[in-house]
Amino acid sequence: MDNLNGRVAVITGAASGIGLAMAHRFAAEGMKLVLSDVEAPALEMAMAGLPAGTEAVSTVCDVSKAEQVEALREFALSSFGSVHLVCNNAGVGGGGPMTELNLTDWEWVIGVNLWGVIHGVRSFLPLLAEQGEGHIVNTASVAGLFAAPFMGAYNVSKYGVVALSETLFNELAMAHPNVGVSVLCPSWVKTNIASSTRNHPDGEPADAGAIAEAIETFISRGIDPADVADKVAEAVKVGRFWILTHEDTPAAVAQRMTAILEDGTPPMLMH
After folding, report:
1. Which CA distances in Å does 218 have to 93, 142, 163, 243?
2. Close Cβ partners of 140 (under 8 Å, ≥ 6 residues apart)
3. Which residues are within 8 A (CB) of 172 and not within 5 positions of it... i.e. 6 or more apart?
4. Could you say which of 146, 154, 159, 242 is catalytic?
5. Looking at the 3D structure of the chain, how many domains does it have?
6. 196: Cβ contacts below 8 Å, ≥ 6 apart
7. pLDDT tens-digit series, residues 234-258
8. At 66, which CATH number?
9. 159 tagged catalytic
10. Residue 232 falls inside a structural domain
11. Is 270 a domain residue?
């Protein structure tokens, strides 16, 4: 989709961070926006901060719930009549040693990060395929390309998003070549994902303490979400599959792949 003007974009997790940056970037392209997030107050603030003249609607959506993502699709269609770009972006952080993660930790992180993408693809893909055009952007992470310690549930969820996206790419190439897919694999970005445990079902994160502090330090040194949004917009226009945000990511991936090919052990990577 080299021309985004007048097209309709659906963005989950749109109230902050990368999702909000994508909303502003696509608004600048003249797109109509359907923004969703699990937090109503933050979503209202996001809507109020959009550039003047932006055609946008919003609705609260918990992407871990299939029926809510299906309702998001119907809301988008009732609002604008069509959908051209789907950004399955909503995500949460979650860390801690494997010995300390409980069942709720696993279910929450995988429910949002992986099932949220599954629900987004399942709900919107038939629509894009039927109309014969469109693009899907699935937000994964470099944690979907190599696995750092103390991020077990998060790593598993992001590896799943990468696998889903790779599978979808080849299926679309064979059956629906005018529908594209990209997988976004950012490294550290200045977002509030470190505080996403505010929405944890138990209200008490497993990654409290030194691990959380370390993650917050990495995030504070990250790139601006607007830089990520620029890369996403470019990828959608040219049909690029991999969206990498940091120059050191390819070297880290190569280090992991070398270990696999040479029968080595997983390298310690914290990019």
Report:
1. 13, 14, 26, 20
2. 158, 161, 162, 165, 183, 184, 185
3. 179, 180, 181
4. 154
5. 1
6. 91, 92, 93, 94
7. 999 999 999 999 999 999 999 999 9
8. 3.40.50.720
9. no
10. yes
11. no
d(CA 168, CA 162): 10
Question: Does a structural domain hold residue 121?
Answer: yes
Q: Which amino acid is at 264?
A: G
Task: Identify the domain containing residue 239 by its residue range.
Answer: 8-261
Residue 2 lies in a domain: no
| Each residue's pLDDT tens digit, 57-112 | 999 999 999 999 999 999 999 999 999 999 999 999 988 899 999 999 999 999 99
SS (H, E, C) the chain: CCCCCCCEEEECCCCCHHHHHHHHHHHHCCCEEEEEECCHHHHHHHHHCCCCCCCEEEEECCCCCHHHHHHHHHHHHHHHCCCCEEEECCCCCCCECCCCCCHHHHHHHHHHHCHHHHHHHHHHHHHHHHHCCEEEEEECCHHHCCCCCCEHHHHHHHHHHHHHHHHHHHHHHHHCCCEEEEEEECCCECCCHHHHHHHCCCCCCCCCCHHHHHHHHHHHCCECHHHHHHHHHHHHHHCCCEEECCCCHHHHHHHHHHHHHCCCCCCCCCC
